[in-house]
């Protein structure tokens, strides 16, 4: 399995960060990354947003630039991969190519790039609103291709004397870039590409370039469908069927007993009022369910048309699908991971319960691994690293120790 750790303080949701772990947000990232490295994880991962969500603004949380934070982490770790997030909707490709290649050199071949098209932030870049999804993905394709050509603009290490820098000379719909890049490519080879966004366009894009997809799959059927579809699409794009590793976020709550684990889960979401949850449904689907009673049934007819513009097609489709398949009461709907979180796979219980969930999904060919989103408490995370990870290694589902030094090597990209 491929296993990464998200460097997000998921267990602090709704609480102040003050007094927890450290006041310096980069020490927090370094501490968690060192813990993940001791467990032999493939990578740590930092998501990103280019705007401030209102709730976080109130709490004054520091959202460091992920590439800069991971550069600090690079200097205090040796083996673990470092996957940063850079949006293709707002940055110039030359700057991104250079920053990512810099991280690759500083970390000695451990950089990875999570390619996102973003759902917000336009107003910080002189735009009135987000471009439509098709435009964003066309831009992502051109952006990514330009970055890769910049990376390859230097002769490969060991090439014949006299090999020249390759100008890029790109002139496309969105970007004009002469090149070459002012940094050669690190001898570890091309930076692995991750992608997040699983609409039809997102899947097509991932199948054409990505080595892994960071997926939101609240249930096993969603993960199986996504993985099977990506395997088909990869073959259609003349790639190997397993070229795109499917890595859902796994939001786990582990404790010594099931009762304690469920208490952690309850506590993590109790700060979300009914109103906040209804707002979330409105933001995801455009549906106003506020006049309903908690015991009333939600049916697809109550939802706006499926082709209405939404912030994230991935998240809208997941919630719509859940309602169509389950016709839940409003109370049940408002407790769903698609509503209280980001539609990630939730596993709650003892070490063995969560281990069993992981093995079940893996055996069902729903996943190639996962990105851990520790929830509930620091103790839950400790149990994951100290007890669950060694059990995966004992079962030969995960490495007992690193056998390579680069992220490409960890992921087995040839
Ligand atoms: C699991 C997941 C993680 C994402 N992480 C980020 C992120 O860190 N930063 C960001 O700007 N957008 C992020 N996105 C948004 C996507 O890049 C994309 O803009 C959005 O999902 C809309 O694309 P879609 O129509 O393919 O769903 C994420 C999306 C998913 C599904």
Question: How would you characterize the overall build of this protein?
Answer:
The protein is an alpha/beta fold and 414 residues long. The chain is 41% helix and 13% strand. The protein contains 15 helices and 11 strands. The protein starts with a strand and ends with a helix. The model has no long low-confidence stretch (mean pLDDT 93). Bound molecules: flavin mononucleotide. Flavin mononucleotide is lined by residues 47-49, 85, 87, 116-119, 133, 196-199, 201-202, 214-216, 312-314. Flavin mononucleotide binds at residues 47-49, 85, 87, 116-119, 133, 196-199, 201-202, 214-216, 312-314.
Condensed summary:
The protein has 414 residues and is α/β, with parallel strands linked by helices. The protein has helices spanning 25-38, 54-59, 66-75, 93-106, 133-151, 200-209, 220-236, 258-269, 274-285, 313-326, 330-333, 337-340, 351-363, 378-394, 407-411, and strands at 2-6, 43-45, 81-87, 111-116, 170-171, 176-177, 193-195, 212-215, 245-254, 345-349, 369-374.
> For the report, how would you describe the main beta sheet?
8 strands, parallel, barrel
Count up the domains: 2
Low-confidence parts = none
- The CATH superfamily of the largest domain is Luciferase-like domain
Assign a percent range to the helix content. 40-55%
**Inertia-based shape:** globular
Number of strand elements? 11
| Helix run count | 15
What labels would you give this structure?
single chain, 414 residues, alpha/beta, TIM Barrel, 2 domains, eight-stranded parallel beta barrel, two-stranded antiparallel sheet, 15 helices, 11 strands, 41% helix, 13% strand, globular, binds flavin mononucleotide, monooxygenase activity, flavoprotein
């Amino acid at each position: 399995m491929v296993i990464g750790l998200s460097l997000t303080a998921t267990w602090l949701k709704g609480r102040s960060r003050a007094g927890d772990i450290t006041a310096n947000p980069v020490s927090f990232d370094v501490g968690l990354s060192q813990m993940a490295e001791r467990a032999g994880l493939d990578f740590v991962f930092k998501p990103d947003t280019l705007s401030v969500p209102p709730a976080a603004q109130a709490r004054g949380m520091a959202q460091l630039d992920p590439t800069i934070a991971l550069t600090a982490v690079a200097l205090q770790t040796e083996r673990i991969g470092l996957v940063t997030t850079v949006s293709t909707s707002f940055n110039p490709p030359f700057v991104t190519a250079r920053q990512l290649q810099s991280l690759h050199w500083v970390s000695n071949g451990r950089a990875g790039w999570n390619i996102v098209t973003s759902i917000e932030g336009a107003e910080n870049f002189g735009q009135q609103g987000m471009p439509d999804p098709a435009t964003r993905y066309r831009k992502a394709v051109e952006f990514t291709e330009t970055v890769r050509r910049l990376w390859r603009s230097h002769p490969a290490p060991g090439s014949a004397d006299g090999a020249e820098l390759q100008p890029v000379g790109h002139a496309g719909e969105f970007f004009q870039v002469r090149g070459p890049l002012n940094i050669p490519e690190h001898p570890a080879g091309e930076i692995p590409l991750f992608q997040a966004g699983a609409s039809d366009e997102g899947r097509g894009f991932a199948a054409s370039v990505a080595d892994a997809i960071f997926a939101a799959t609240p249930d096993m059927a969603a993960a199986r469908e996504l993985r099977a579809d990506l395997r088909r699409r990869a073959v259609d794009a003349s790639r190997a069927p397993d070229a795109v590793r499917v890595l859902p976020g796994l939001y786990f709550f582990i404790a010594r007993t099931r009762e304690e684990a469920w208490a952690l889960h309850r506590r993590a979401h109790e700060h979300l009022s009914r109103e906040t949850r209804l707002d979330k449904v409105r933001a995801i689907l455009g549906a106003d369910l506020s006049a309903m009673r908690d015991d009333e049934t939600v049916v697809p007819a109550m939802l706006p048309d499926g082709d209405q513009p939404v912030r994230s097609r991935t998240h809208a489709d997941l919630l719509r699908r859940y309602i169509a398949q389950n016709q839940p009461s409003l109370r049940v709907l408002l407790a769903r991971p698609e509503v209280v979180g980001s539609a990630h796979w939730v596993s709650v219980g003892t070490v063995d319960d969560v281990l069993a969930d992981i093995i079940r999904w893996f055996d069902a060919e729903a996943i190639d691994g996962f990105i851990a989103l520790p929830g509930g408490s620091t103790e839950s995370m400790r149990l994951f690293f100290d007890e669950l990870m060694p059990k995966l290694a004992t079962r030969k589902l995960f490495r007992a120790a690193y056998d390579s030094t680069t992220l490409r090597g960890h992921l087995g990209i040839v």
